[in-house]
Amino acid sequence: MHKLHRGEPPTCLRGYRHGLNNWSEVSQFDKNSIWDELLAMQGDRCAYCEARIAPDRRHIEHFRQKGRDPTVTFVWSNLFGSCNRSCSCGRHKDCAEPYAPADLIKPDEEDPEDYLLFSPDGTVSPKNGLSDKSDHRAAETIRLFNLNGPLRQIRFTELVGYKQTAEYFAELSHQFSEDEWLPLLQEELQATAQLPFSTAIKHMMTPQSPGR
């Protein structure tokens, strides 16, 4: 989960109104237009778990569930692209018991890295030093999107390939001054920034405050 920068809403959303239309009335052509803008915002990765998503393994996700708050059905700021795993992310959240939407970290408005720490074993946890409120929100985000569970092993499998790279940069940091090795690390982070699970990769290769 990482910070997203939302662009302008797709013009097709202007043709739909709460009280007049249902989500089922959105045409496939218009959904494709919505996807164009979602992909511009988040790449071809799930907004929540950062796994790669393909056209047959994704859905347009309502951050605030349209079934519980129909007024946000066509609100652009409420839409994200999610993977289709039933055990995590949007599908898992929508099957959860009622919760306070404000308890979730919204990645186009907040930086999830201010709240979450990814570990080399694939787990994600709240960062140390958070306020009680922020700690609760981090824990609820992990729980409702089920960012551990099956995703932990998937994430770990991706991280294994970067273990040697992380060790290499750790060794450089002990042997050379920062101005010698930091540019190399920044190049590596730039090269991996658009990959699946890039935040977990980043946390593996850079010093982070430990989770609780």
Structural summary, described in words:
The protein is mainly alpha-helical and 212 residues long. It is built from seven helices and four strands. A two-stranded antiparallel sheet has the order 1-2. Strands 3-4 form a two-stranded antiparallel sheet. Strand 3 and strand 4 form a beta hairpin. The longest helix is centred in the first third of the chain and has 15 residues. The chain starts with 27 loop residues before the first helix and ends in a 7-residue tail after the last helix.
Give a short synopsis of this structure:
The chain is mainly alpha-helical and about 210 residues long.
- Low-confidence runs of at least 5 consecutive residues: none
Question: What is the helix tally?
Answer: 7
Cα-atom radius of gyration: 19 Å
Structural class: mainly alpha
**Average predicted confidence as pLDDT:** 93
The biggest sheet amounts to:
2 strands, antiparallel
Silhouette: globular
Measured as a percent range, the helix fraction is 25-40%
Classify the beta-strand content into a percent band.
Answer: 5-15%
Give helix and strand order, one letter per element, not per position: HEEHEEHHHHH
